[in-house]
Amino acid sequence: TGEIERHSAHAVVLGTGGYGNVFFLSTNAMGSNVSAGWKAHKRGAYFANPCYTQIHPTCIPRSGDYQSKLTLMSESLRNDGRIWVPAKLEDVAAIKAGKLKATQIAEEDRDYYLERRYPAFGNLVPRDVASRAAKERCDAGYGVNATGEAVYLDFASAILRYGREQALLKGESSATDARLKELGKEIVKAKYGNLFDMYKQIAAENPYETPMMIYPAVHYTMGGVWVDYNLMTTIPGCYAIGEANFSEHGANRLGASALMQGLADGYFVLPYT
After folding, report:
1. Of residues 78, 82, 110, 127, which has the active-site annotation?
2. Which of 194, 214, 234 is the last residue of a domain?
3. Which residues of 184-214 are buried (b: 16+ CB within 10 A; e: fewer)?
4. Which of 120, 130, 225, 258 has the highest count of CB atoms within 10 angstroms of its CB?
5. Model confidence pLDDT, tens digit, residues 7-23
């Protein structure tokens, strides 16, 4: 019903998430507003490392001025997707004006800037590196949407690569490009179909046929309420777990490690304490 009730207990556990929503837009739900952690802090609980904020590189860009949050796309997409922007500012201008499509830009006129800058890692550089590089390109004027805050995440190469692999497995040595794309799309759909469907619903574009647009967004906060090794704050009997505490991640959380912290805090430590 939304009615607020007051309860007392010998032990209280805060599992209320981080403070990403102190920023204008983030991937956090609006209910994750650090109100519980802030109240604990006002009651005397220490707060640690509030500057440790992670920017996620693979989010759907904002589309206007009336959004409450941004949508996170899985980091797994960078396993196969290639990130790029047009190499020429005139092509950027043509895209924004609706006179040119991403698929019409030749390979030699594309800047796969992560592959260019970090050839040993390519598109799989750490999150902070990928986010910083995308913002730098957009700040330089190469952003590809109306707001100027988007880069491309392209699966055309992955579709063809998977198509060739499947054609060899199926003995189709003379498969046409159309057949290779058909076979490749089946593999990509099996791996990322739910994400592609979500993107299509939000962005109204088919990512199997045209590159996705992505942009960094505030995603996770590694700072939070200070806790000891028993996950207790400096207020006796008040505990904090997960993103609510100042966490196990240090200054730069590894991707896909939320399950690790959930297990460490909720399964191993908290039942013992």
Report:
1. 127
2. 214
3. bbebbeebbeebbebbeeebeeebbebbbbb
4. 225
5. 999 999 999 999 999 99
110's enclosing H/E stretch is strand 110-111
**Closest alpha carbon to 224 in 6, 36, 80, 9:** 36
Residue 242 in any domain: the answer is: yes
Count of all residues that appear for the chain in the document: 273
Instruction: Give the single-character DSSP code of 263.
Output: I
Residue 240 exposed, middle or buried by CB count within 10 Å (0-12, 13-18, 19+): buried
Where does a domain end: 165, 197, 214?
214
Which tokens in the block code for residue 83?
Answer: 């990130």
The 10s digit of each residue's pLDDT in 16-59 is 999 999 998 899 988 888 999 999 999 999 999 999 999 999 99
* Same domain as 61, residue 46: no
**Is residue 6 situated within a structural domain?**
no
Same domain for 209 and 227, yes or no, is no
Range of the structural domain that residue 259 is part of: 12-52+222-272
Q: Do residues 110 and 116 lie in contact, with contact meaning Cβ atoms separated by under 8 Å?
A: no
Across the chain, which has 273 residues, the per-10-residue mean pLDDT values are 90 94 90 92 95 94 82 92 98 96 97 97 94 98 95 97 96 94 97 96 95 96 94 96 89 80 89 84
Beta strands in 15-107 (DSSP E): 47-48, 53-59, 82-86
Is 127 one of the catalytic residues?
Answer: yes
Domains held by the chain: number: 2
